[in-house]
Amino acid sequence: MQDLKQKLFSFGIYGTKISELTQEEIILLLEKTWVEIVSHNEIKNLQASFTLVSLPNERLTAYNHYTKNGFDLFLLNFLKNKYIRMETVAWKDYLTNGAFNFVSKEYYLFINLLLSKNEFVHSSELKSALNLQPKKLFYLVKKLASLGLLEKKSYNNGYLVKLIRDENGCILTLKNNQPNINIQPSVRNQLNTDLNTHNLSKNELRFDIPLYEQIRRLVFQSAHGISSHDIFQKFGIKIKVGLKLLTKLSKINEGKIISRDEFDGKIKRTKFYFIEQLEKCKNKSEIFTSQEEPYSGNKMITVEDRIHAIECLIDQKGSFLLDRDNVDELKRILGVKYDLDRRTIINSAIKGGFNVCKSIIKDNNIRYVISDKNAKEDEQIFNKISQKESFEIKKLSKFQQNIYRYFVIYFKFLEKDNGFISDKNIRNKYFYLFLRNISTQKQQERFVFDHLIINEMPLYLILGLLSFKKPNFKNFIIEEIRKSLFNGNLNVKKLKTEIFERK
């Protein structure tokens, strides 16, 4: 296979007619994801406008037909006028072996030209053929020569260069143990930027699917929106290039994809949304609570997120004073490390319909108290909250406060204490098994999910599927059941209804 890979590489970035290969070679190459089978028009377009994006690839069509029908007359006719080539970035990776990274088209065209000529080429010919400035050409030659890929010698007011080949005439490739020299980030190699370090093992770029199609699917399926930083995290593509790809995709799908600026902490990012997904999220008032996209890094914090965090804290405390400790608690719920602006929190609370009231505590220090939407704005109640919270702060040392926040009132621990199943796959499995049992009982594949179905759901399953962040909520339910059993008036259906009303 290595010899066949060398052979396909030697045809250059534009490949060759598939008729240049034997039937056995074609069959072997049909299985490889780094191979592209394209039309002559696609090759002409690539020559006219060079791109790193994967070309529309018909390899899978040919491969699927071959696995079902073998190499028959249809497949022979299908491939007759096609071109076969190594995918552009895979072509570069074969030569560099991960020791040298670049995305500049000048490198590709320069190496491709030298590959097509098994002899020295004069610098004047290179400048003319590639339309390169002398400074750029000098830079290319210097870098490639320093890596041992080029042979260079002075000649006639210029210099001659050619690719170094072995005794069999094959191009020498770089070795794995050579230092990793970063010129520009590649879509296949490990990157280091001021934002993050890309892990090659997590690279999800597929070379058998056009890049635009992969990004389009990503945007259309995401409820979070996609930024160029997400593209970098998922595919390893340079952030500026990712933004250009997303912008172009947005123009192509005008009316389906929109963009908007959001803040990731203090970093402003442009995110692209599939409009239908965005509307679904708005209806749920919850944009970034899904855990299905771990590659996306820090969450983008929106007004909806802040409102949701305030709601979680109110579920825990009923009402709370907007002090340092509660701001820190909101930070933990949101999953951010930077300081939240208190004025922004107050504005979010107002937009969420919560009650916000000034509370004057010691030394005429004005504090704000945020309470439930249904609570009355009673100044005495708010003052009691302020005094109580201030007393509790004084009562605990700083270390004790941290222990209390992390192990007593941290919302994820509260969920688990109340029986919530944190693993989404397990929750889905239990819910599916419950629905299947209901379907078996009703002897129906389709049925309406209503309060009658909920009444059939065991209490442990309700607590496992729904997240309750109120401290000791599960113990409260157990105590209610115990009292009802003691008094002889247990009404499980009513209790389930009350649980859903609390949720």
Could you give a short description of this structure?
By secondary structure, the chain is mainly α. Helix content is about 50%, strand content about 10%.
The appropriate CATH architecture of the largest domain is Orthogonal Bundle
| Helix count, DSSP H or I runs of 4 or more residues | 24
Count of DSSP E strands?
13
Total number of domains: 4
Provide the β-strand percentage band.
5-15%
CATH superfamily of the largest domain: Winged helix-like DNA-binding domain superfamily/Winged helix DNA-binding domain
Regions with pLDDT < 50 over 5+ consecutive residues?
Answer: 177-202, 284-298, 378-384
Helix content: 40-55%
The whole-angstrom Rg is 32 Å
Report how far the terminal alpha carbons are from each other: 61 Å
CATH class of the largest domain: Mainly Alpha
CATH fold description of the largest domain: Arc Repressor Mutant, subunit A
